[in-house]
């Protein structure tokens, strides 16, 4: 596969709808300390049935931003409020596993453990205390839900990711693409295919090493 040149420079912004802009501003600006850096007031935008809205942005560092849309007059039912799990954008039925609901989330990284603990202190003193603090693989994270029900994570690296782990990640993805292209993919088949790829490619790694 031809290697494509990498031209992007990170996230400009991620955007979500909100039905509670006051709580959203309080959470991100007043609790976490993310300053408001931009807003767009839009009246008469789009087709005739498009409501007026405000689009507002918070600085999350590194010139990246998290943004929200507040549509005047829009009701929570727009987001599928008939479900009992999820957030204002997507609601799920009671039978949907919690791990599936929580898999969609935003993670923001900090440099040091002290930074992570400071954000934990701020959250625990607010209406949105930390729900989980977990060390997994190379990172440690704290989690909560913001006022809109979005899963929100702050994470720190416990150590650098090695080139060998980058190589392993690419092997894993190549194996995954092969397995999901066949009937009845499974975790066991993924590991078996990955082992095959290691054997196939091992000869190419020795000269590079």
From TrEMBL:
CDD domains linked to this entry: VOC (cd06587)
SUPFAM superfamilies (alphabetical): Glyoxalase/Bleomycin resistance protein/Dihydroxybiphenyl dioxygenase
Pfam families recorded: Glyoxalase
Coiled-coil ranges per UniProt: none
Gene3D superfamilies named in the record: 2,3-Dihydroxybiphenyl 1,2-Dioxygenase, domain 1
Entries under InterPro entries matching the protein: Glyas_Bleomycin-R_OHBP_Dase (IPR029068), Glyas_Fos-R_dOase_dom (IPR004360), GlyoxalaseI/FosfomycinResist (IPR050383), VOC_core (IPR037523)
Domain VOC span(s) in chain numbering: 10-157
Family annotation (PANTHER family): GLYOXALASE FAMILY PROTEIN (PTHR21366), METALLOTHIOL TRANSFERASE FOSB (PTHR21366:SF31)
Name under which the protein is recorded: VOC family protein
Taxonomic source organism: Amycolatopsis heterodermiae
Lineage: Bacteria, Bacillati, Actinomycetota, Actinomycetes, Pseudonocardiales
């Amino acid at each position: 596969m031809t290697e494509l040149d990498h031209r992007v420079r990170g996230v400009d912004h991620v955007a979500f709808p909100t039905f509670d802009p006051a709580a959203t501003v309080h959470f991100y600006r007043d609790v976490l300390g993310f300053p408001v850096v931009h807003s767009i007031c839009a009246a008469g935008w789009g087709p005739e049935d498009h409501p007026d809205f405000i689009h507002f942005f918070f600085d999350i560092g590194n010139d990246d931003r998290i943004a929200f849309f507040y549509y005047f007059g829009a009701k929570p039912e727009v987001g599928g409020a008939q479900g009992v799990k999820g957030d204002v954008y997507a609601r799920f039925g009671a039978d949907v596993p919690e791990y599936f609901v929580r898999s969609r989330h935003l993670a923001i990284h900090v440099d040091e453990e002290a930074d992570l603990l400071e954000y934990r202190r701020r959250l625990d003193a607010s209406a949105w205390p930390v729900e989980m603090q977990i060390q997994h693989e190379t990172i440690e994270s704290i989690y909560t839900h913001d006022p809109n029900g979005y899963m929100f994570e702050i994470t720190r690296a416990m150590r650098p990711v090695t080139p060998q782990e980058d190589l392993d990640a690419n092997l894993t993805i190549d194996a995954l693409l092969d397995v999901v292209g066949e009937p009845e993919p499974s975790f066991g088949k993924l590991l078996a295919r990955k082992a095959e790829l290691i054997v196939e490619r091992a000869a190419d790694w020795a000269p590079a090493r």
